[in-house]
Design brief:
Blueprint lengths: L2 E6 L5 H9 L7 E7 L4 H17 L4 E6 L4 H13 L5 E6 L4 H13 L5 E4 L8 E3 L1 H8 L4 H12 L5 H8 L3 H13 L3 E4 L4 E4 L1 H7 L1
Parallel strand pairs: 1-2, 1-4, 2-3, 4-5
Antiparallel strand pairs: 5-6, 7-8
Helix pairs in contact: 3-4, 6-8, 7-8
Length: 210
Amino acid sequence: MGRVFVAPLGFHEDFVLRSLVKFKAMGGDTLYVVTCGPVVSAVKRAIDGLVAMTSRQGLPQPVLVELDCNNFYSSVGRLRELLRKHLEDDVVFCVGGGLRVLTLVVLLALVSLKKPFTLHYEPEGGVNEFTVEPEFFLNLFEELDEAERRVLSVVVLNPGVSVGEIARTLGIKEKTVRNIVTKLKKRGLVVKRGRREGVEPTVIAKALFS
């Protein structure tokens, strides 16, 4: 299993380089730069600059993916087929440059595959960078079962609640609750804190299940 970086590219390549450095990309990783065709001179200069910098720093060499941005659904389909080859790889979607339509094409292609991925926003200025972890998308693509939803609901409404308190609230065994909490932790939805191991919702749980 390897890593695949996907980045829409416009007139500036800086945000792609910053993203690669942040994630400690290596020469053996794959980098797709997505742009609209035909490639205009300003984008060509950005690609040439990216090739030079990645070569100098031992980063993955960019593979240009040229799309017909006037044909939205065709572009999504083409990129989807390309990314389908990487279902076993970790995918990092680098956002911060390129036409907005390219960002939508990449996002929808990834979402259509229902494969969790990392989304990293590296702005050119004005807004802080941020990263959306794969667990966020995992919980969009894979539904919780009824027992998991009930336990998570108690946790969201009562942050820091103990396993015993959850069990009493729902009328189920503590062992069952512990097993469910373990599953929710793996999905990035809860954490345990403090000496009493209170169960608290993560920011992902608050965003998706509050």
